[in-house]
Amino acid sequence: MSQALIVAAARTQDNQGSLQHCLDLEDRLRARGVALRELVIEPLSTDWHSPEPEDHFRSGCAPIEALSRARELIGEGVPAVLIRGEDLIKSGYSRDDRLRLMAVYGPDYPLTEAYTDLTERFLARQDHSSDSFRDLARGLFDNYRATFLAQASHAPGANLPAEHWFEPVTRLFRGVDCANPMVDFSGRLLVCTAALADDLGVGPDERIEIRGVGLRRLAGDGRDYIDEIAGYDHLRQAYRDSCEMAGIDFAARFRAGDALLEAYTCFPVVPMAFLLVSGLVDVLDAMPDFLARHSVTITGGMNLARGAWNNPALNALISMHHRLLQGEEHIGLVHGNGGLGYRQGVALLART
User: Fold this and answer.
1) Architecture of domain 5-91+178-351 in CATH?
2) What Gene3D superfamilies does this protein's entry cite (predicted)?
């Protein structure tokens, strides 16, 4: 199978950043007569319950699903694939429209309440108390914040949530735990073959390979599927599928310091489940020690690094591409979680 290589990754958030490098490569491809297949991450304005058209992807897992499709298309002989997502959450919707469109389980069952129910079922399976969960959630957010503030582009205290976001919004969650970023976002990933990368003059030090992608989806989502979601067996299988496809023992490489992780961090139950199913921690009681020694994001997570509605994992893939090119690690994992968790995706990227 042909190597699927990410050769450009760009984004803007609230008019900061630039897409120009990616756009320039796209223009060069079109000038050469290369057909560019486009995969679209749908915005909040799309009806959550409508059918997904071909080459369109929806939910927090959508960018990982699109990445998997891009890899398949390259293997089928398509020379270049563009993954793009744009959502103007801050400027493109009224407050009432945002609230209405985000109520994907109906106005009487908000996402915060759905995730609270899911978390309580998860905690019962793990034989953990609500107080223990709140402690672990604080530990996770502290981990995100330390990573976020360690980046050179952020001054101490810059862009951190206001104090009221640290107050409870449900019986388990604070505002900082829920992470529905209020941001205008646009992002692009350009994937192509090695031969086309050579033709474009994109050198080996500018390429990141899509080594493995694991996807799993339950039969349904929402209240009726909470028991099945809370077991996270489908996440475990998506993780294993990705590692097997890539030929990588991610947990071992991560512990050895040769891999990076960007867990999906909206609602603490999701990264907790990932740490368990990946074997990075054996039990929840081991999490505080793990969090003291390892970053579970490279960005500060969607709670701090943001990425609108269906796009946080696209934001993470863009960040992982650049971080792998600039850093010493060779492997990067990005996790995507769709809906209440019925869709799970795990992508493994590697320096070439």
Assistant:
1) 3-Layer(aba) Sandwich (3.40)
2) 3.40.47.10
